Amino acid sequence: MTWTGALVCAALLVWLGSATALAVIDLRTRLLPTKLIWPAAAAVWVLYAAASLVRGDPSGLWGALAGAFAASAPVFAIHFVHPPSMGFGDVRFSVLNGLVCGWWGWHVALLGLAAGFLAALPEALVVMARHGARASRPLGPYLAAGTAAAVLWAMAASGVVPGG
């Protein structure tokens, strides 16, 4: 494995550890703590920056930035329009997830977000049928699962280092 690949894998391990912790915390408390999200995002960014420097190509880093925006903008819009339906922790977590997926392109970040919402849909429908339209469930575990699925798909399709 190349140094670039090792740095990307390290970033994915940082994400995996924090996403697992965040999913468990969200299930228990319905909160996604900022004190876990931003340090993980900073670590992923630094590792992706190092991978870009070693590779001599900033496209993965720019993709990560675009992915963070692409994945968090729709979630922020939902939060902005109707804050009770989407917590700001979900917005912050979407930034981290989009950053992780974006190494392979902003489209992978949107795929991860869509996969997370799709994974949440069956439980959401059951909860709404049982408890009414105002019922809610934590979204963090589903956002993490969608991100994991998108990253695995991207790695299978184009490798740990796309084009490399």
Mean pLDDT: 95
Distance between the termini: 11 Å
Outline the low-pLDDT stretches.
none
Class based on secondary structure composition and strand pairing: mainly alpha
As a percent range, the share of helical residues equals: over 70%
Radius of gyration: 16 Å
Shape label? elongated
Number of helices: 6
Secondary structure tally: strands:
0
* Sheet with the most strands, sense and barrel status: none
Order of helices and strands: HHHHHH
Structure description:
This protein is mostly helical. Helix content is 80%, strand content 0%. The protein has 6 helices and no strands. The longest helix is centred in the first third of the chain and has 27 residues, at 3-29. It is elongated.
Map the helices and strands:
Layout: H1 3-29, H2 34-55, H3 59-81, H4 88-102, H5 106-131, H6 140-158
Helix pairs in contact: 1-2, 1-6, 2-3, 2-4, 3-4, 3-5, 4-5, 4-6, 5-6
List keywords for this structure.
single chain; mainly alpha; 164 residues; elongated
In short, what is this structure?
The chain is mainly alpha-helical and 164 residues long.
